[in-house]
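User: Predict the complex with magnesium ion.
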Amino acid sequence: MAHKSQAPGSKTPVQKPEFSVNGLFITFEGTEGSGKSTQIKILAQRLRQAGHEVITLREPGGTPIGEEIRHTLKHSAVNHAMTDVAELLLMNAARAQLVREVIRPALAVGKVVLCDRFYDSTTAYQGYGRQLNLTMVKSVIDVAVEDTRPHLTLLLLVSADVSEERRATRQANLPFIRDRIEEADRPFFDRVANGYRQIAAMEPNRVVELAGSGSTTEVAEAIWEAIRVRLSNAVPGGILNLKAKADHD
Ligand SMILES: Nc1ncnc2c1ncn2[C@@H]1O[C@H](COP(=O)(O)OP(=O)(O)OP(=O)(O)O)[C@@H](O)[C@H]1O
Ligand SMILES: [Mg+2]
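Assistant: Here is the predicted structure with magnesium ion placed in the model:
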């Protein structure tokens, strides 16, 4: 689909190049250890079994440039002095690259794109968590993504205790890799959790809140149910031809 617009002084409609969106864009959000990575794998497998072409991505990252930015943000030995605004801009530099290099082309050919974190993470972590001005944060996100918005966002909710417990378990089983963002204190993560609740309240059509504290299978079933409802809107020849229902429409 291309927008038609009039060139100044011309009566000929001009085709404005644009990626048509036939695919489905689903993002996973939630605090550390809420089960995003676990559930993305399960959902990807299930959608592939149902015949869909699926790509899974993570933020920050998902492109060679984005993975370098991810290293700078999280693991670099010289990232201790990073300012909150630098963090905001680097997150969105990686996102701008991911949107243009991977997400738009994939959606244009009808793929399902599953992304482990997207711009709600910026609102929650850099906005609510770091307490940057929310209007400024939104402006930066708008530059990074333009009209590339998730059709559906699955927000996995776990308590701070469950989050800490799961992170501890995971860390016990893996070699330690320092993550600058995980070095924040508990009030920071409480603000992030509150931020996610605000986001869900503001955009109830897009953001589905799901209890992440059940078993992996229970959470997977709840996710599948949320997806299934939307896939039932499928049309022949374009099984995922969903129109994003913006909450502000
Ligand atoms: N429903 C569940 N019940 C119990 N443990 C779980 C459940 N889901 C995930 N876990 C375990 O909790 C840990 C964190 O899960 P996972 O890595 O999927 O979370 P995440 O949201 O991706 O975390 P992060 O934000 O840190 O990347 C892992 O060790 C995982 O095996
Ligand atoms: Mg993860």
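The chain has one domain: 21-231.
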